[in-house]
Amino acid sequence: MLYLTGDLHGGFNMRKLADLERAGEGAPVPGAGDVLVVCGDFGFPWDFSEAESEDVRWLESRPYRVTFVDGNHERFDHWAERPSEPWHGGRVQRIAPQSPILRLMRGEVYELEGCTLFTMGGATSVDRAWRTEGCDWWPVELPDEEDFERARAALDEVGWRVDYVVTHTCANRMLPRALYPASMWQAPDFDRLTFFLDELEERLEYRHWYCGHFHVDRDLDDRHTALYDRVVPAGGSLAS
Fold this sequence. Notes:
Number of helices: 5
Radius of gyration: 17 Å
Mean pLDDT: 93
Order of helices and strands: EHEHEHEEEEEHEHEEEE
Helix content: 10-25%
Low-confidence stretches: none
Number of strands: 13
């Protein structure tokens, strides 16, 4: 079965997974053979510390497979050096050789658990003015036209019809429903990615769209869900 959740930010927001496993009967807990997709800001690796390595080993030891789309807070210099390989119809990168943790790459379509999944990571960092390029911020946090063309070609192959869309941010038209809840946060800018996601909203047939980024658990409408702490099975919303 396929499950989704929001940002981990490395070890900062990872405890929710351990809490979920302890919740017992009735909790939407991924099990053996299941796949969990993190909707961006996975955040591993970041500082390559021993504490971080322990967190990664814990994730690797889960009975389910951990996967993710990239957000804006990732070590893109690390991922630029990782090779890609085919997996379930799309391309992925492993966090390290032989690791089961997979990055679902931008503009790919996967056949997973009997459904089709389109992925497009990336977003604009609203806090980039306080970050340092090449240290904790990279311009490639935003996809470029090459990524968009790859996505269009992949969607051409499936007739612009998928079951689920997984992104980090959302289309321009959905931003008013997904703004950060705390006054300290700025509203995300419109950018080339959010305009591309508007294009997908116009052209793509899908059942449900999941995103992270906004630090809320909220059904934006009956086909869009923003995730942060909650874990949901694919096809479900927070209300279901």
